């Protein structure tokens, strides 16, 4: 059943403009992914961030694993590319962390809802419990330096674009998540976040925009990898 569900999801996402997906060595349980940031107000706008996703044999009863393969300086992304995000945590409430079951993975979630949540996380950092402590501190204390490092990450990510790649625009937004008629294709996620709209959060990232850097593309030469 997992193979059938994943193939349906793969075919659906293959039509999208905001993500590139390929099967790794034709293995339906391992995907090569590239997230494309189309939100012009995002610090990460224009990024082509390669990642890998792997799925358990009992998917969708257990969550996939996700890891970025390129450097992304962000409070909620570990230096090894893994993320601190509730939707990838196993189902059920966690009394230790205080996460509710509705915030975590459930069999009703889909790959699309995971990827949309990750795109939203880029602009809506949770700095109170950062995975990358240095990034969390810098975001609070030196936002200009934080912006410069992120910009370096974005520019470096563009080297991974395919030769025939053309940057999509917000005129071709992500398809809305709708319920599928196929009984084997799980119901839509409760995550209604929009990867292309601005964040509703009051977090420290809201006052930072990529537009501040439009005039100094050639001036910054920062190393964006965190230790």
User: Main sheet?
Assistant: 4 strands, antiparallel
Secondary-structure arrangement, i.e. CATH architecture:
Roll
How many structural domains in the coordinates? 1
Q: Give the name of the CATH superfamily.
A: Ubiquitin Conjugating Enzyme
Residue runs with pLDDT of under 50 for 5 or more positions = 173-203, 218-227
CA-based shape = globular
GO molecular function, one term: transferase activity
Organism: Penicillium decumbens
Keywords: ATP-binding, Nucleotide-binding, Transferase, Ubl conjugation pathway
Region (Disordered): 160-227
In short:
With 227 residues, the protein is of the alpha+beta class. Helices cover 21% and strands 12% of the residues. The protein has one domain: Ubiquitin Conjugating Enzyme (Roll).
Question: Describe it for me?
Answer:
The chain has 227 residues and is an alpha+beta fold. The chain has one domain (1-159): Ubiquitin Conjugating Enzyme (Roll). The chain is built from four helices and four strands. The protein has helices spanning 2-13, 111-122, 133-141, 143-157; strands at 19-24, 27-36, 48-54, 65-68. It has a four-stranded antiparallel sheet with strand order 1-2-3-4. Helix 3 crosses helix 4 (143-157). The chain is globular, with a radius of gyration of 17 Å. The protein starts with a helix and ends in a 70-residue tail after the last helix. Keywords: ATP-binding, Nucleotide-binding, Transferase, Ubl conjugation pathway. GO terms for molecular function: ATP binding; transferase activity.
């Amino acid at each position: 059943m997992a193979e059938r569900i994943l193939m349906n999801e793969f075919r659906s996402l293959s039509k999208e403009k905001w993500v590139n997906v390929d099967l790794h060595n034709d293995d339906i349980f391992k995907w090569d992914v590239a997230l494309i940031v189309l939100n012009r107000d995002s610090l990460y706008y224009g990024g082509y961030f390669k990642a890998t996703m792997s799925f358990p044999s009992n998917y969708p009863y257990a969550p996939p694993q996700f890891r970025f393969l390129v450097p992304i300086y962000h409070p909620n992304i570990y230096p090894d590319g893994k993320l601190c995000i509730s939707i990838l945590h196993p189902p059920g409430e966690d009394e230790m962390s205080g996460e509710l079951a509705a915030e975590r993975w459930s069999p009703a979630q889909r790959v699309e809802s995971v990827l949309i949540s990750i795109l939203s996380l880029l602009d809506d950092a949770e700095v109170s419990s950062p995975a990358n402590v240095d990034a969390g501190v810098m975001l609070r204390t030196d936002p200009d330096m934080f912006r410069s490092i992120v910009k370096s990450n974005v520019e470096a990510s563009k080297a991974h674009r395919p030769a025939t790649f053309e940057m999509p625009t917000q005129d071709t937004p992500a398809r809305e998540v709708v319920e599928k008629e196929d009984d084997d294709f799980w119901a839509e996620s409760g995550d209604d976040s929009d990867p292309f709209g601005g964040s509703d959060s009051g977090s420290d990232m809201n006052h930072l925009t990529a537009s501040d850097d439009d005039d100094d593309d050639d001036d910054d030469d920062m190393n964006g990898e965190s230790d």
